[in-house]
From TrEMBL, chain A:
It comes from the Eukaryota. One of its GO terms (molecular function) is NF-kappaB binding. It comes from Falco tinnunculus. Belongs to the COMM domain-containing protein 6 family. The lineage of its organism: Eukaryota, Metazoa, Chordata, Craniata, Vertebrata. Scaffold protein in the commander complex that is essential for endosomal recycling of transmembrane cargos; the commander complex is composed of the CCC subcomplex and the retriever subcomplex. May modulate activity of cullin-RING E3 ubiquitin ligase (CRL) complexes. Down-regulates activation of NF-kappa-B. Inhibits TNF-induced NFKB1 activation. It holds the Pfam family COMM_domain. This is COMM domain-containing protein 6. PROSITE patterns: COMM. Residues 138-205 form the COMM domain. InterPro entries: COMM, COMMD4/6/7/8.
From TrEMBL, chain B:
Residues 121-189 form the COMM domain. It comes from Falco tinnunculus (Common kestrel). Belongs to the COMM domain-containing protein 1 family. It comes from the Eukaryota. One of its GO terms (biological process) is negative regulation of protein localization to cell surface. Coiled coil: none annotated. This is COMM domain-containing protein 1. Pfam families: COMM_domain (PF07258), COMMD1_N (PF17221). InterPro entries: COMM (IPR017920), COMMD1_N (IPR033776), Murr1 (IPR037351).
Length: 205, 192
């Protein structure tokens, strides 16, 4: 059927088959957690998928997968779900299509995908503009610390306070990364002032 | 007793300029200000070795003062001690150095601070507020969002531009954290 073959072509382009090796490295419950997070992201319930954090836990459990490969798997599953949504595939259609494309996907992976899609696939709505959402990320959270630089090799009496900020950011593909930077006190005051102005404008719009 | 007088012809006017030149090279990264240039411009009648010694002495004094970021009390004590040393400075020279440091302390200190900032710094920030007109979910249409662009980078390296979306709730979240920082900062300045 037309919808199914569109998905098949898409999956082939993404080389889902090649991902099978990587998926094999992920223990079943972690793979289920990954798929859960992805579908929740697509349903706009969470801001993104924290691949790095999940990878650490998987590695602790003894698997050898690296962050890059886990990210690739996440992208593929995400693409699979959003393509299926765009083509309005039912659970059976999705599973059949997967079977047609990728015979090498481990059975447990197919089971997980089937379960997750069955439970939450209906509410994934993918509109055209989602793909045009450029390079704007979503702010998720912020950590900070305040320090004082006392001395350096060029100056024994530096004594300047500074703030280090780490922003947790979800990029357009849903992956969460950290961005850190430093501010001096005057820079921090300006930063603060700008956000206050933003709040004021948002209120009046 | 004070050290022997330096060549009287020039007086102390070029000393101020010499200190400025030394600071340019040492703290403001101006490689064009060479020793030879300074000698020609400020002490044309001095012999090169004589000038070199003067420059080295003044450079050393400025370094000590800048490294300790001396306040006026420390400066006075330091310079007075220098006038009493063998091969030290005259009280006229001390006066010129004091005046120079008072005028340039802040800028030189800032320069030294910048030299020790090796992590990403926030170079610039700009923002605008948009009305979200399209969205995956209908309930998001016509909600205002702030789009913030931050320029991050290390000193002397290419910048990375981070572009983020904040809705009203996220801005509140950010403001709360920023208030926490401000509180800590106030405590810090109170105790130091």
């Amino acid at each position: 059927m037309a919808a199914g073959s569109a998905v098949v072509r898409a999956l082939e382009a993404l080389d889902v088959g090649g991902a099978a090796d990587k998926i094999n490295l992920i223990p079943q419950d972690f793979f289920a957690e990954l798929c859960e997070q992805i579908i929740q992201y697509l349903n706009q319930k969470i801001p993104g998928v924290n691949v790095a954090e999940l990878c650490q836990r998987i590695q602790t459990s003894g698997s050898e997968i690296n962050v890059g490969d886990l990210a690739k798997v996440a992208n593929i599953v995400s693409f699979l779900f959003s393509t299926a949504a765009r083509n309005n595939l039912s659970t059976e259609e999705l599973v059949t299509t997967l079977g047609n494309t990728v015979s090498a996907l481990p059975k447990h992976a197919v089971q997980v995908i089937r379960h997750v899609w069955n439970e939450q696939g209906k509410s994934v709505s993918v509109s055209e503009d989602a793909r045009n959402m450029s390079t704007v990320g979503q702010f998720v959270d912020m950590k900070w610390k305040l320090g004082v630089a006392m001395s350096s090799d060029t100056c024994r009496s530096l004594k300047y306070p500074y703030v280090t900020v780490t922003l947790k950011v979800a990029d357009p593909s849903g992956q969460i990364t950290d961005k850190s930077f430093e501010m001096t006190i005057p820079q921090f005051k300006n930063f603060f002032r700008q956000f206050k102005e933003m709040a004021a404008v948002l209120e009046t719009v | 007793m004070a050290a022997p007088e330096p060549p009287p012809a020039e007086g102390c006017r070029p000393l101020g300029a010499l200190l400025a030149g030394i600071a340019q090279a040492a703290y403001h990264g101006n490689a064009a200000v060479t020793e030879e240039l300074l000698r020609q411009q400020l002490y044309p009648e001095a012999a090169p070795e004589e000038f070199r010694a003067l420059r080295a002495k003044m450079g050393g004094l400025l370094q000590s003062i800048a490294s300790a970021d001396m306040d006026l009390n420390q400066l006075e004590a330091f310079l007075t001690a220098q006038t009493k040393k063998q091969g030290g400075i005259t009280s006229d020279q001390a006066a010129v150095i004091a005046k120079f440091w008072k005028n340039h302390r802040l800028k030189i200190h800032e320069s030294l601070i910048n030299q020790s900032r090796w992590d990403n710094v926030l170079k610039n920030m700009s923002w605008r507020v948009d009305l979200k007109s399209q969205s995956r979910h209908v309930d998001q249409i016509n909600t205002p969002v702030a789009i913030v662009e931050m320029e991050l980078g290390k000193n002397g390296q290419e910048s990375e531009f981070l572009c983020l979306e904040f809705d009203e709730a996220k801005v509140s979240q950010m403001l709360k954290k920023l208030s926490e920082i401000e509180e800590s900062m106030t405590l810090l300045t109170q105790t130091t």
